[in-house]
Amino acid sequence: MTMTPIDDTPTGRNEAGDSPDENGLERIVSRNPSRLGVGRAGPRPRTETMLTFQADHGRARDAVLTTVSDAFVEDLDLVKVRTLVEDKDQYLARPDLGAEIPEETVEYLHTQCQQHPDVQVIITDGLSSTAIEANIPDLLPALIDELDERGLSVGTPVFVEFGRVDVMDAIGEELDAECCVNLIGERPGLRTAESLSAYMVYGPKRGAPTAKKSVISNIHAGGLPPVEAGAKIADMLAAMVEQEASGLDLSEGDREFQKG
Amino acid sequence: MGTANTLSAGDYTFESIQTLLAKANEPKTGDELANLAADSDAERVAAKRALSQTTLERLRENPVVPYDEDEVTRVIQDAVREPIYERIRDWTVADLREFLVDSSTTDREVRAIRSGLTSEMIAAVTKIMSNMDLVLVTSKMEVTARCNNTIGTEGTLSFRLQPNDPADDVDRILDSTREGLSYGVGDAVIGINPVEDNVGTTTRILEGTHEFIEEWGIPTQNCCLAHVTTQMNAIRDGAPADLIFQSLAGTQVGNDEFGIDVELLDEAHDLAERRCTSSGPNVMYFETGQGAELSGDAHEGVDQLTLEARCYGLAKRYDPFIVNTVVGFIGPEYLYDGRQVIRAGLEDVFMGQLHGISMGIDACYTNHIDADQNDIENLAVLLSAAGANYFITVPMGDDVMLNYQSNSYHDAAALWEIFDLGPAPEFRTWLEEMDIWHDGTLTDRAGDPTIFT
Q: Is B279 touching A (CB cutoff 8 A)?
């Protein structure tokens, strides 16, 4: 068996003396988010490099497959509902079912939640429960304060299990909200499983096209921090109320954060 | 179509060729989501049996989207060479399968009937082939193409180097290019997916990679996978592109969703022939993938495998240098797990090669599908045995821009070693001159990106 000699750094790459340009290698490794300069064992990755990759993938899978705990939902005093989806497998295979709520849930929402709010806040596990647990404790109170400051009434926050982005259309329509924001866990990457998006719609109605929706994405400690995100989301919701529009119907200057 | 074409097997009847094709598919969540899949395994096999007894003529005369309504159908139907079709029109789909797997059928015999086939016929036979059938027949077919180098020749396996960067930073794109080249990867194309789809970014990426390729005398081609109109505008302004890229759909409505039509693709092809920096003659690059049409609500009631075949029928019009399916990217609502991804990958490469296009694959997965690196390593081994023209590779399998995983630079060297294969001939000579790869294995200095500083 032949092996490229490596140093002892965690990424395991070619030994200093072996490289024609050690400074060049350092520069390449340090300035790149990609897994570069990782070295090799024959034609395969070094063991440590491979295990690091597997650990990152494991974290991402866990974020997808685990659910937000009941204790978390209770601590934040959220009204909890579920979509037409029955379990995680079905959630992944049937996005259509994750956008609708059962008939009895509609009645339950009417008894539990304030009607006709300016802004209905929805929190949805989406593809990362980790993103919810990591960001919502800071983001939710910040968002509510910021909306208060802008004179917008906030409805009763709802937590949706097995929800898709468009579940906000159904819930917002039922509660007759002027705007709806869905704080939803993004599909995890290998770098972070904590990224959250805020999707927003003016005049929520079932079947509203994607082009009518606004989004602020990449919300996590290493991206747009949750407290800052609260202010940005509130700004966008205020613009939506003022212009009575969302998505591509919003004036260009107010669509600034859509790219995320 | 309709009741005049009622088809049956055992206790099951199928109301149209379209329904029959859909229900004969191996299980795919995308067909279930579209409400087109068989309700049970028994119905699935009944559909396969009824399909196996269907003639090629019946498939020709019942395209899944009507000729008058869909230009993809027109491209496919109008490309059929009638005398060749006349020779095989009476064959059943079972006859076609048994012809393809016959030991006396070689690449030459496949070429002899190819121009008589439509995409629907190719989709149909795929549905009654097992995984090993697909590997066997794919391994018989040799489809070569030439741009700055030659892809697909006997004994070779090529790789796209995909040095994507989340900020389109050209210096970092070139770092990743250095890393890939040091593993011998990059003969199919050095192809970058930009974050920002605009002329400025596309031009910067094309210029950076072009200069690097020139500096190191690398016999390969560059490509920036922005929307085709963005690339065309960049090229008209003088940007150096070796290939023009576009994603394709299998219906006219699907292509409309992608912002393209046949007229635009014709124009792009014409521009590529006149203005690309490569020697050609094959100057186009396409990507496809099962489920793309349904995700844009443009599937026209047709199953995802048949639509995928129609993408290849459209691609063929442009005699592309490379075409690859992106097989696990779209999500679990289309291909649920490693098993469905592997099946779709084998189907797609087989169908592409049977169309006569230079076919490769992005064997990949996102973090919300039930698959991992082992699944795509399996698929890479199967498709290397089958003789796919190329794979996509990214650093350690991790694409930090598109946020998904594919094969790694390391996988390339391992696949060459396992199957005693090597890169495209011109690229092989260059790797040997650079002392990166000799006699089937990486040299001691391979794997060090600073070779190229």
A: no
CA atoms within 13 A on the CB side of B254: 29
Report the 3 state secondary structure along B113-173.
Answer: HHCCCCHHHHHHHHHCCCHHHHHHHHHHCCCCEECCCEECCCCECEEEECCCCCCCCHHHH
Residues 346-375 on B with a CB inside 8 Å of A are 366-370, 372-373
A36 and chain B: CB distance < 8 Å anywhere? yes
Q: Are residues B404 and B428 in the same domain?
A: yes
Residue A42 domain-assigned (yes or no): no
- Residue A53 in any domain: the answer is no
Domain count along chain A = 1
Instruction: Please indicate, yes or no, if residue A151 is contained in any of the structural domains.
Output: yes
Element (H, E) at A202: strand A196-202
Domain boundary among B77, B105, B139: B139
Among residues B120, B57, B118, B127, which one has the least CA distance to residue B97?
B127
In tens digits, chain B (453 residues) has pLDDT values of: 333 446 888 889 999 999 999 999 999 999 999 999 999 999 999 999 999 999 999 999 999 999 999 999 999 999 999 999 999 999 999 999 999 999 999 999 999 999 999 999 999 999 999 999 999 999 999 999 999 999 999 999 999 999 999 999 999 999 999 999 999 999 999 999 999 899 999 999 999 999 999 999 999 999 999 999 999 999 999 999 999 999 999 999 999 999 999 999 999 999 999 999 999 999 999 999 999 999 888 999 999 999 999 999 999 999 999 999 999 999 999 999 999 999 999 999 999 999 999 999 999 999 999 999 999 999 999 999 999 999 999 999 999 999 999 999 999 999 999 999 999 999 999 999 999 999 889 999 999 999 999
B162 marked among binding-site residues: yes
Q: Is A97 on the interface with B (CB under 8 A)?
A: no
Task: Identify whether residues B182 and B86 lie together within a single domain.
Answer: no
Chain B residue closest to A65 (CA)?
Answer: B368
Closest-CA distance, B352 to chain A, in angstroms, reads 27
Chain pair A-B, CB pairs under 8 angstroms: 133
Residue to mutate among A7, A19, A28, with most B CBs inside 10 A, is A28
**Does residue A162 sit within a domain?**
yes
Query: What is the CATH classification number for the domain harbouring A143?
Result: 3.40.50.11240
Mutate to test the interface with A, among B336, B394, B450 (most CBs of A within 10 A): B450
Q: Which residues of B touch A60 (CB under 8 A)?
A: 367
B134 and B185 belong to one structural domain: no
Written as one string, the DSSP assignment of B42-54 is HHHHHHHHHHHTS
B160 annotated among ligand-binding-site residues: yes
Q: Which residues of B touch A55 (CB under 8 A)?
A: none
Instruction: Give the phi and the psi of residue B306 in degrees, each rounded to 5.
Output: -65, -40
CATH of the domain at B407: 3.20.20.70
Please tell me if residue B11 touches chain A, with a CB cutoff of 8 Å. no
**Total domains present in chain B:** 2
* Residues of B in Cβ contact (< 8 Å) with A191: 400
Residue B52, domain CATH: 1.10.220.70
Considering the domain architecture, whether residues B124 and B223 belong to the same structural domain is answered as no
Nearest to B375 by CA among B416, B325, B337: B337
CA of A141 vs chain B CAs: smallest distance (Å)? 29
On whether any CB of chain B is under 8 Å from the CB of A40, the answer is yes
Same domain? B359 vs B246: yes
> Does A116 lie at the interface with B, CB-CB under 8 angstroms?
no
ipTM entry: 0.94
Range of the domain at B104: 3-139
| Total residue length of chain A | 260
Q: Which of B72, B104, B139 is the last residue of a domain?
A: B139
Distance CA(A124)–CA(A185), nearest Å, equals 7
- CB atoms B366 and A94 under 8 Å: no
- Domain extent, residue A253, equals 65-259
Write the DSSP string, A114-181.
-SS-SEEEEEE-TT-HHHHHHHHHHHHHHHHHHHHHTT--B---EEEET--TTHHHHHHHHTT-SEEE
